[in-house]
Amino acid sequence: MIRLPAIKIQQGLSSRPFLSAGSFLGTLALALAAAVPLIYLAGTDPVTAYGALLRGSVGDQYALSETVVQATPLLVGGLAVALAFHAGLFNIGVEGQLVVGGLAAAAVGVNLDLPAAVHLPVAVLTGAAAGAAWAAIPAVLKAWRGVHEVVTTIMFNYLAFGLSRHLVAPGGGLASATQPSASDPVADGARLPALTETTRIHSGVLLAVAAVIAVGWFLYRTPAGFKLRMVGANPTTASFHGVGVRRVQIGALMGSGALAGLAGASEILGLYGRYLDSFSPGYGFQAIAIALMGMLTPLGVLAAAAFFGMLAAGSVGLQSVGISRELINVVSGLVVGFVAAQPALIGAYLRRRRKRQASGQGEDASAAPADVDARSAHV
Amino acid sequence: MSDVLNLAWVVSAITLATPLILAMLGGLISERSGVINIGLEGQMLVGAFTGVLVSYLTGSAVLGLAAAVGAGVLCGLVFAALTIGIHADQIVAATAVNLVGAGLTAALVPIVWGVDGISPEVARIPAVSVPGLSSLPILGDVFTKLTVLDYAAFGLAVAVWWLLFRTHLGLQLRACGESPEAADTAGVPVRRLRVVAQLCAGGLAALGGASLSLATIGLFVASMSQGRGFLALAALLFGKWRVWPAVAVCLLFSLVDALQLRLQIIESAIPHELLIALPYLLAVLALATFVGRAAAPAAIGRPFTRR
Q1: Among B221, B282, B278, B263, which residue's Cα sits nearest to residue B12?
Q2: How many domains does chain B fold into?
Q3: For residue range B175-221, what is the model confidence (pLDDT) as tens digits?
Q4: Partner residue facing A154 (CB), from B36, B104, B230
Q5: What ipTM was estimated for this complex?
Q6: Do B305 and A377 touch (CB under 8 A)?
Q7: Which of B102, B287, B301 sits opposite A151 (nearest CB)?
């Protein structure tokens, strides 16, 4: 059983708003600063590069709208990763679940002939259900056989990529006769409608915002959400209190998969209108960075998704000054690295502040919160 | 069927097994010392890239290999600094290694070679013909097609087995993974040994990556490891953290991988996109059916602090 102590400390952080906002901005700044050598290697300078990035992401109204478009799947994917983390599970399989969700939504959108009022909900829900189903086997293996979910969910990513390539290859079940590596367009009734006429923003963004509220409400306002967080914090204690740990783990990983499937369905039904192989440039992996950077809270994930949405929207501008789109993946990796390092850094900061307070107030050092020390000793 | 299941199939399986075995050995040393290492994939990519880069710059594939190992050790050092130095969560830190490894190598390809995603062909590790053995009847062919790295993988497997299970140092290292407190009490430098294990793991995984790029095709393709770091990890779990069972699983995965590559050419009726997924499917089946809870080193994933 792998517990995630780093995550526990971050959950403790969410009750310290200034410290958590500071660590969010610190992570962001450090990751962008650490990418600077790469920018020089690419033959340009940080001012030009980050200037292009800002122009492409918030420079004008259309750029802003592109940031929203890019942030939509990242937000839902980030929520998926965060939900599993709260149960102590690391779902690296969001990418595969997202692909399968997109495939299932497209299959319903292309092949079924339903009235418009039911076609869209059925397509969206099928996408979510497919994502949940893709997470089901790793979930059961984790809960009943103790097989680490990291390895199994990764394997399911590669299975999903194979399935996707197969279904849209010539002769595959979803393949379009005219467009390579894509499906036919989904029926109009199954499209997530566009919200404006001049931008690519679609109603998937409303689903994403609803998901933020739903996940927040579920985690912090329902008994089931409390049980889920209890299992994540300490499965042994949870089981002594009568929580069915296995059932919660399976539910959490499948719920995470459902969110990932929803993210995929929203891209296919909202943005593209047909299934495209490799429509996701690694949303599921960036989602890990987003969940961690957002300290696993729904609002934190929203903020982190906005940042990564900016990176994605601005990457077009970056490419124009000669920097590869891969910079986003480097930055997301760096973010994950800094988040991993954070508990130690914040622990050291809090210890020092406590020492300073203690020396200022006399000998009352024991009154300072001892929780961070207690935690880091177990880390 | 004989044009699929023949000696050439076995040769191609051995070649495909080499990167897996090397990465698996790295993972084995790391996990036996008590540190979960899911960063093998990223370290493999760093090795594959560095090998090709140095081979491209110097024209020497051997220098490429050496540089790859060096880069892998450096990755191991970063990972060790995070997990052992400041007790960062091992899974999260390794995910960072994977993401940065994949992103950075892919981002550097256009910077170095000006083309997205793929490097030009570089000097590669040649196949060697073993004198004597290569003139054997039937089996002789095997000994003309393998490279030094293929033999080295098996040699290193023997070395790791001997080191871990037949030396005092190996006993100390395994003690760090089973009960770091007891090892510490007995005077074993737990953290130092774990750091050394990480450096070895990084070097071995990167060598595995370099064998993928320098021996097999002689160029680098972005994310060319295609989950092999995780397959190596699955082999490690399925082999219950023991050298020879895990090597056998690596060979099994590679036999299946080689089979699907050959079926793609010969049996065009089976969609090859599905065949590619065969090794991953096998890994899931293996994990589903055989792994027991009790096989992992007892202190795996648990950082050590002296009280």
Answers
A1: B263
A2: 1
A3: 999 999 999 999 999 999 999 999 999 999 999 999 999 997 899 99
A4: B230
A5: 0.90
A6: yes
A7: B287
